[in-house]
UniProtKB/TrEMBL annotation:
Record-given protein name: CTLH domain-containing protein
Entries under InterPro entries matching the protein: CRA_dom, CTLH/CRA, CTLH_C, LisH, Ubq-SigPath_Reg
Pfam families: CTLH, LisH
PROSITE patterns named in the record: CTLH (PS50897), LISH (PS50896)
Native source species: Lolium multiflorum
Boundaries of every CTLH domain copy: 61-118
Top-rank lineage group of the source organism: Eukaryota
Length: 226
């Protein structure tokens, strides 16, 4: 019951928050981590100059990574593969699933523009051998090739493969693989901390009434509901 909850006033809550000491350097590293992981190279460079915070990877490589991600998002899959091999040929060797999904996306793009003969040849030469070794890959190949059986492929049972969201999914895999190869986290830390804050507040709601943060863009505290 709400009446049995501990009530924490705004003054008491803010006093406890002030007692928590967080170093500016740690906050700056969180911000830099977000800029680098998400590919905001200009923002990362300005932040480096303004705060003195150094990135754990060369900022010049962010541009290359974003070019590969954009290439996949625009359907230029072979360009992304070539650039990845130029950057580091071991990335795709060590990530066969990412390489398969790139090849699958290339097949999808051939089907999208109606190059049926080329799509069938590509599927047979590049994807089929991988499907023979991996059952999960084989199922993905079958779903992709099935697009050829429908006149209105976008509205068929596997039409989601032609959606731009599938390009984005593959592009994000590419982004993560490159970051991992550079010994960098594949996901930014800041969103994870926000998720942890939401979870913590949800748990605390069961035990106490306290000034809650509901608007994360302003981080404003709201008076507890009593």
């Amino acid at each position: 019951m709400a009446s049995s909850k501990k009530v924490v006033t705004r003054d008491e809550w803010e006093r406890k928050l002030r007692d928590v000491k967080i170093r500016k350097e740690d906050m700056d590293r969180l911000v830099m981590n977000f800029f680098v992981t998400e590919g905001f190279v200009d923002a990362a460079d300005r932040f480096r100059l303004e705060s003195g915070t150094q990135s754990d990877i060369d900022l010049a490589t962010i541009t290359d990574r974003m070019e590969m991600k954009r290439a996949v998002q625009s359907g230029n899959v072979q360009e992304a593969i070539d650039k990845m091999n130029d950057l580091n040929p071991t990335i795709l060797e060590r990530n066969p699933q990412v390489y398969f999904h790139l090849l699958q996306q290339k097949l999808i793009e051939l089907i999208r523009v109606g190059k049926i003969s080329e799509a069938l040849e590509f599927a047979q030469q590049e994807l089929a051998p991988r499907g023979e070794k991996n059952q999960a890959f084989l199922k993905e190949i079958e779903k992709t090739v099935a697009l050829l059986l429908f006149e209105d492929a976008e509205n068929c049972p596997y039409g989601e493969l032609l959606d731009v969201s599938h390009r984005l999914k593959t592009a994000n895999e590419v982004n993560a693989a490159i970051l991992t190869s550079q010994s960098h986290e594949k996901d930014p830390k800041l969103p994870s901390l926000l998720k942890m804050l939401i979870w913590t507040q949800d748990q605390l709601d069961e035990k106490a009434a306290y000034p809650r943060i509901n608007n994360f863009s302003t981080a404003a505290l709201e008076d507890p509901a009593i």
